Amino acid sequence: MQSITLSGNDFLHVYVDPDNEVIETNEKNNYILVPLFEKQINAYLNISTGYENIDNKIRDYLKLFVNEEAIQNNADLTLCIGRKCSNFNSLNDFTLNSIFKSQKFGYKNDQLIFEGKNVGGKPYNAIVGGFWKDTDGKNYVMAYGNDIDGDIAAVKKLISARDLFLNKDLLQEDRAKIIDDFDVNGISVADLLRNPSNFPYYTQRNSEQFSRVVERILNNNNFEVAIKTIKTLNTTSYNEPSILRLKNVNSDFSQNYKEVISKGIKPVVMSGGIFSNLVSWEDNGKGFARELANEGYDVWEIEMNGGENTECPTCPDYTYQDQVDYFWPALIAGVMQYSDKDQVDYIGHSNGCRVALSSLNSYSSGKNSVGFAFNSETGEYDILVDLPDKSVDKFFGVACPATLNEDTSLTEATRVNVIPIIGPKIGPFVVSRITKSHTTMSDFTLRAIPILYLRGKLTLGQGLLTISSLFSSDKISRNLLEFYINLSTKKSSTFDISNVNVNSINLFHGKPSDFIVPFEDQDILYDNLTVQNKSKDNLNTFIFPIPRINDHSSIKQSNKFKEIVEEELR
User: Fold this and answer.
1) What are the C-alpha distances in Å from 14 to residues 20, 32, 66, 156, 343?
2) What are phi and psi of 13, to 5 degrees?
3) Is the sign of the CA dihedral 134, 140, 141, 146 positive or negative?
4) DSSP type of residue 516
5) How many whole angstroms separate alpha carbon 508 and alpha carbon 273?
6) Are strands 31-35 and 11-15 parallel, antiparallel or unpaired?
7) Domain boundaries, the chain
8) 283: left (phi over 0), alpha (psi -120 to 50) or beta
9) Is the Cβ–Cβ distance between 54 and 189 less than 8 Å?
10) How far from the centroid of its chain's Cα atoms is residue 326's Cα?
11) What's the Cα-to-Cα distance from 460 to each of 409, 451, 484, 485, 514, rounded to whole Å?
12) DSSP string, 94-159
């Protein structure tokens, strides 16, 4: 056992499973900030920046340093945060004009004023001031800025100087600090807010995404990776654009590492399956995306579903065709824009394969104006991007659905009649009972299992499929789920990909099935492709696939699949 010295520190930052080696249903609770001091001040928190989510994050942060007192008269101190706090105007008038104050400051004529001079007009300029107010006999600290940047910077300044502002012996003394144009604290906050990964949310200040950005900045917990974004056109089925995410996996490595990557190498783009997210190919730090990046490939992951920008409560209920016509073309064009390359190699799992084939069937010869890349200089999505001719060189598809005509654990389940002979089929019936616009696989399986059991149709494979679905909390739109359930219910579907034009294509499927996609779909894809350089390989799933080992979601980690892909990429 090894001991560590904590004296002289304010906090212990605790990270559990930093490399994501442990499989969890929730990967967002692996960090905690532990105070190493005893809180001395009971404070009444009067916080209003104009954005409720931000106010809550600031409140949580301040409560690490003070005990919150719900009754103002019982508090040692009132903290007024933001220029919209309930008594700002009266306090501001006092700090600007009171004859009893030795340091006068405040907000006047849209300017921050300290000792009669303008502090500055930048968003991060701010004032923190503490004083005793003679008219009510209460102690106050005010912290506010020109904009949200300044409010955040002021809160950080308040805490960094808490020996001055939260000192019981100084509560009735006038004390103030300003954040001017050259203040490092203010500049760092503004810089972090404008980080390319964060700035798209800067204008969405009421969003949960922006509040998480603020939380990280307050806690000095800024593990930034190059997660970039692309904006689709607004001609989707829901008549709005969507902001989609893509990640350069190599960006997690040092600059020295990135510099040794071959300058001429094509990006390798990886897209997950129907229930996946942006980092599904990383598989908790041990996945194929990481392996390829470690070998020097320029790896990019794209997210068509499963992410915070596609599955939030207010996100649109996008369709399969939205992914084909808008999501995939914009994301591939985005990779090209950000990597400065005009062709990619592509690896798609499940839906990430089928959508790509559908899109390439329509747009192999290119498509102009497919979306907008983010411009860090203007802070706008104003860089129009095109999908070029033959955008994909080498294509690799694993567990790729085609028609789903043959029997698997999924298709057999969806085709059972709820009422014998009469119907309806379980698949469409269960989907009709899902009212949420974004849903998990278990939302479907847990509704279907009781009906299958009562009908005497429940098989071992369907039980294992249900168990497998419980391991994932990833969501997709209800429309996308309905598309695949309807596809699985039919027995005579077709899938035209005869116009796909890539230099080579390799298909990998589980044999006899992977719970969801029948092995026969491989031949349907292979026979329909007119690409000259094509191949197909089977990945043995034995009698029954095993959840988390070789089922539909995990088959992409097959060693045989990875070895062939790496050989073809060389």
Assistant:
1) 14, 5, 21, 20, 42
2) -85, 115
3) negative
4) S
5) 14
6) antiparallel
7) 32-193, 409-489
8) left
9) no
10) 19
11) 9, 15, 22, 20, 13
12) HHHH-TT-SS-EEEETTEEEETTEE--SSTT-EEEEEEEETTTTEEEEEEEESSHHHHHHHHHHHH
β-bridge partners, 506: 396, 535
Phi/psi of residue 56, nearest 5 degrees: -65, -40
- Residue 219 CB neighbour total at 10 angstroms: 17
Is the distance from CB of 335 to CB of 344 less than 8 angstroms?
Answer: yes
- Residue 309 has a pLDDT of 82
Q: Using omega within 30 degrees of 0 as the cis cutoff, is the peptide bond preceding 420 cis?
A: no
246 contacts 346 by C-beta, under 8 angstroms: no
Average pLDDT by stretches of 10, the chain with 570 residues:
44 54 53 63 97 96 94 97 96 91 91 94 96 94 97 94 91 94 82 81 92 86 63 97 89 49 74 90 82 86 91 92 98 95 96 98 97 86 96 97 94 93 93 94 90 88 75 87 96 96 96 88 96 93 68 86 93
Angle, helices 52-62/208-218, rounded to nearest 10 degrees: 30
Are 227 and 246 in contact by the 8 Å Cβ rule? The answer is yes
Span 118-152, pLDDT tens digits: 999 999 999 999 999 999 999 999 999 999 999 99
- Give the strand order in the sheet containing 117-118: 105-108, 111-114, 117-118
Q: What angle do CA 255, 259, 260 make, to 5 degrees?
A: 125
CA atoms lying within 13 Å on the CB side of residue 192: 25
- Cβ burial of 71 (10 Å; 0-12, 13-18, 19+) is exposed
The pLDDT, as a whole number, for residue 6 is 44
Burial bucket for residue 8 (CB in 10 Å: 0-12, 13-18, 19+): exposed
Q: How far apart are CA 474 and CA 256, in angstroms?
A: 35
The b/e string for 43-65 (b: 16+ C-beta within 10 A; e otherwise) is bbbbbbbebebbbebbeebbebb
Is there a contact between 304 and 327 (Cβ–Cβ < 8 Å)? yes
d(CA 30, CA 26): 9
What single-letter amino acid sits at 476?
A: I
Is the domain 32-193 a CATH 3.30.70 member?
no
Nearest to 533 by CA among 563, 509, 503: 503
- Going by the DSSP 8-state scheme, the letter that residue 438 receives in this structure is E
Q: Please give the helix or strand (H or E) that residue 243 lies within, else none.
A: strand 243-248
SS (H, E, C) 348-395: EECHHHHHHHHHHHHHCCCEEEEEEEEECCCCEEEEEEEECCCCEEEE
Predicted local distance difference test score (pLDDT) of residue 2: 42
- E strand or H helix that includes residue 293: helix 288-294
Q: Return the structure tokens found at 453.
A: 């059991």
